[in-house]
Design brief:
Radius of gyration: 17 Å
Oligomer: single chain
Strand content: 25-35%
Shape: globular
Number of helices: 10
Order of helices and strands: EEEHEEHEHHHHEHEHEEHH
Distance between the termini: 34 Å
C-alpha cells in the first residue's frame, strides 16, 4: 500500500503550551488507523492541524500534495472530511438539511442527490427522520448523521474524533460496525481518535499511542492489544 497521509515533525503550540512536539507518522491508503491516549495527549489537536483549523509547524502531505498554508475548505476539497467530537450537528436544521450542509464543496446537484440517496440507504433511520430537526434525534442517531454528513463530500479520508463518546455500549458497537463498513465497502481511509482503546485497536490496522504531544508507541492494532504497557494504561488489565 502507498501512503495517503504523511506527517513530518508536526508541532502545535497554544501560547507557552506545546500541544504537539514534533510528530511524524504515515497513514496507508485504504487503512484504518487509530490514535489512543489520555485526555490532553494532543489527539484532537492533531486532527485539527490536518485540516488547518489550528496553526502548526512541520509538514503535512495528503495524496502527494503539500497541505501547508492551504485553507480548510481547500483541504476538504482535496478529500478529507471530519466528524468532530461531540457530533456538532446543526440542531435547528432537519436531517436532510444537515446532509446538504455536508455537500457544500460539491457543485454537481445530481451528485449531491445520489449521495443523499446513498446515505439514506446506508442509514435507514435517517431516511425515516429526514424531515425532523437534528436536535430531536438520539445521541446515536446524531452520530450517524454526523458521519453521513461527512461522507456527503465524497472523502478519500475520514477523520473521526471520539465517535463513541457518550453513547451506550451497544450503540458504540453499531457505530464501529458502520466505520468498518465505510472502510471496506467504500475504500475510505480512516484516522480515528477514540477513548475506548480496546474498541479502537480491534478496529484498526495500525495504531499510535500518544502522550503529552508525542507518539510513544506504534504498531498494528492487534499487537498493541497485547502490549503490556497498553494493557496497563488503557485497557484496565
Amino acid at each position: 500500500m502507498s501512503s495517503l497521509l504523511k506527517v513530518e515533525d508536526l508541532k502545535v503550540s497554544y501560547g507557552a503550551i506545546n500541544a504537539l512536539k514534533g510528530l511524524s507518522f504515515e497513514v496507508e491508503k485504504g487503512s484504518v488507523v487509530s490514535l489512543i491516549g489520555a485526555n490532553g495527549a494532543g489527539k484532537s489537536t492533531l486532527l485539527n492541524a490536518i485540516l488547518s483549523l489550528v496553526p502548526y509547524r512541520g509538514k503535512i502531505v495528503f495524496d502527494g500534495e503539500d497541505l501547508n498554508k492551504k485553507k480548510t475548505d481547500d483541504i476538504m476539497k482535496k478529500g478529507i472530511s471530519l466528524v468532530p467530537e461531540g457530533r456538532r450537528v446543526f440542531a435547528d436544521l432537519t436531517v436532510e438539511e444537515n446532509l446538504d450542509m455536508g455537500a457544500f464543496t460539491v457543485k454537481d446537484s445530481k451528485l449531491i442527490k445520489e449521495r443523499k440517496e446513498e446515505m439514506f440507504a446506508r442509514f435507514e433511520i435517517l431516511k425515516a427522520r429526514k424531515d425532523q430537526k437534528a436536535s430531536t434525534l438520539s445521541g446515536g442517531e446524531q452520530q450517524m448523521l454526523a458521519i453521513a454528513r461527512a461522507l456527503m463530500s465524497g472523502p478519500k479520508m475520514l477523520l473521526l474524533d471520539e465517535p463513541g463518546l457518550g453513547l451506550a455500549p451497544l450503540m458504540v458497537e453499531v457505530i464501529f460496525s458502520i466505520i468498518s463498513d465505510i472502510n471496506k465497502k467504500n475504500g475510505v481511509t480512516i484516522l480515528l481518535v477514540e477513548q475506548n482503546a480496546r474498541m479502537a485497536l480491534k478496529a484498526s490496522d495500525n495504531a499510535f499511542v500518544m502522550e503529552l504531544g508525542n507518539i510513544v508507541l506504534s504498531g498494528t492494532g492487534a499487537d498493541l492489544l497485547k502490549n503490556d504497557e497498553v494493557k496497563k494504561a488503557y485497557l484496565g488489565e
